[in-house]
Amino acid sequence: MKMKSFGLLLLVVALGLSLSACGCFQQAVKGETAPPPAPEQTKIVPPEQKAPVVVAAPAPAPAPAPAPAPAAAPAPAVAAVQMNDIYFDFDKYNIRSGDAEILKKNYDWFSANSGRAKVEGHCDERGTVEYNLVLGQKRADSAKSYMAKLGVDEKRMDTISYGKEKPLDPGHNEAAWAKNRRVHFAPIQ
After folding, report:
1. Which of 78, 85, 180, 87 is nearest to 127 (CA)?
2. What is the extent of the structural domain holding 167?
3. What is the mean pLDDT of residues 137-164?
C-alpha cells in the first residue's frame, strides 16, 4: 500500500515539474496571455530617407495540398437486373407457371453476377410455427431446385425458411396472406 502511494506521489511530482518547466503553464498560472504574433515589422531608417520602409514578416510556408482521395474500390459487379419474388398457393410449394417465368428472369441475375443469393421461404400467419417453418423450407428448396435446373450452380444459393416470422404484409386477410406466401431472393454481400 505504501509503495503504491509513493509511486503515485512520484507521478504527481514528475507531472508538476514537467508542466512548471513549460512557459505556457507559468503564463496561465499568472493569468497572462501570450502576445499575438506581429504580422509586420517596421524598420527604423535614418532621417535622410523620406518614409520608413515596412518589411513584411516572412510568410508561413503554404500548407501542402491535400492528397487526392484514393479512388474508391470498385463495388462488386451488380448488374441492373433485379431478382423478383415468387408466390405460392395456400399450403403449396410447387412452382406455378407464371412464377416459372419470374424465375427465368431471376436466372439473368445469376448470369450477370458472380455472387451468391439467399433463397428465403415465407408463409402466411395461418398454421403453427413448426409447420410454417417446414413449408417455408420446402418453398425455398423448390425455387432453388428450379434455378438449378435452369443452370445456376446450387453452391451459389443458400436456402432459409422464415416461416411466418417475417411477413411482408402484416394484415390478417386473404390479400395480405397471398403476399406473405412467397420466396424472396436476396443477393449475399
Report:
1. 180
2. 86-188
3. 96
